[in-house]
Amino acid sequence: MMMEVIVNYIKNKNQLLSHGNVELRKAAIDILNDALTKADPYLEVKRLVDLKGDILRVGDLTYDLKEYKCIYILGAGKATFPIAKALEEILGDKIADGVIICKYGQEGCLNHSRLYLANHPIPDEAGLAAAREAMALAKKTEAKDIVFACITGGSSALMPMPVPEICLEDKKVVNKLLLTCGANIIEINAVRKHLSQIKGGWLAKNIHPQAQIINLTVSDVIGDPLDYITCPTVPDTSTFDDARSALTKYGLWEKLPVPVINYLKNATSEMETPKNLSDHKLHNFIIVAGDAACVAAEKKAKEMGFNTMILSTMFEGESKELGRAFTAIAKEIILNKRPIISPCVLIGGGETTITLTGKYGLGGPNQEFALSAALHFNGIKNTVIVGFDTDGTDGPTKIAGAIVDSFSLERAKKLNISLVEELNWHNTVEVFEKMEDAIFTGSTGTNVNDLKLVVIK
Hints:
By secondary structure, the chain is of the alpha/beta class. It folds into two domains: 13-39 and 291-456, 3-Layer(aba) Sandwich (glycerate kinase, domain 1), CATH 3.40.1480.10; 41-161 and 196-238 and 273-288, 3-Layer(aba) Sandwich (Rossmann fold). It has helices at 13-16, 22-38, 41-48, 80-91, 125-140, 155-158, 168-180, 185-193, 202-205, 226-229, 240-249, 258-265, 292-303, 319-336, 365-375, 408-414, 419-424, 428-435; strands at residues 49-52, 55-58, 61-64, 71-76, 95-103, 114-118, 146-151, 212-218, 281-288, 307-315, 344-350, 383-388, 401-405, 438-439, 450-456. Strands 6-5-4-7-8-9 form a six-stranded parallel sheet, with helices on both faces. Strands 10-11-15-12-13-14 form a six-stranded mixed sheet, with helices on both faces. A three-stranded antiparallel sheet has the order 1-2-3. Helix 8 (185-193) crosses helix 11 (240-249). The protein is globular and about 65 Å long.
């Protein structure tokens, strides 16, 4: 039986507890820390995968390695490194080769796989070169091979391989447009998969059909749809029509590079992503579900003596609107003792977004959620609200999220910060760094759905 190790993920805990409602801030931080521990893919791989002599077990699968030739590892994403690390510790020299692509700043090293670092959320040349290495390794596989695929959230940017008709610069433009228009991840990836030679099942298509493909993945998508969390190695359910509809919905056609427009408008059914990989030996394991942090947060809060309620694990839409809604629910609890009584913790999960137009600053959706909540704290006491990205980087920032309470408005005034103005141009990083309310974790090693908390005493 594995012994669970609690990691202190919050690097600036002392700073966060230096002001405001210290008691409730500490409770919120303890809940966050436990939620991340329970969403650790490294531990889940160690529970799922076992090797005794030549007998490899993965869940309910059993392989006698004397009957197989090579074991390979292919992976990309923000939660991929811990999966690969755990596999290396289990399999050691039995791994013949591997290609793992992680975000710049990933710490640690691998001994049996090649570790590449690339940019996220906008792809770069390093990611393209690494993606080509991954595809080359896929094409090298033979019938008696085992391929562990460790694809997790962030792989779309980290493993870019656009179709020949489109250059990487075009793909960068498309990515930026999609990430700032307010589209959800399903809509975004429907487009990205149909501009790629490696996403949408194409990586699996290039692996020998008689090789064993074992998908070990972590979900950061609402509902855990496989083709949106490990899309290069499973059949695709989206179509060119879906991609075109998303671009029409958000008015992006006129902003797209001409080669992208021509490719998508002229695409035929023969160019579709693989819809059926029944000739391949696919085995899928979601080792950490998208709602894992929410579920763990509720359990921890109950252990701490709070009444709890998971409002939803499927929140989408504008972050600032959800922040306002969460403060409204907090007021309902404080004034009318419904839908739950304090002391309590409300929990929300999902993937909210920000629509960016014109001039904008630096921030992320969870920071924007928290800043919007802070603006509507009037009349609320003994309450803390947190917006948190479980991978440790909220949007294109080094901040994991932010924490606010009933003292935040007054603190902003003393620091001469106009929260309304900063929210209007999405400049949340500077605000929370000045207020000392930014949460820093660095890379957490996981990447499940965002976590929103309301703690009320």
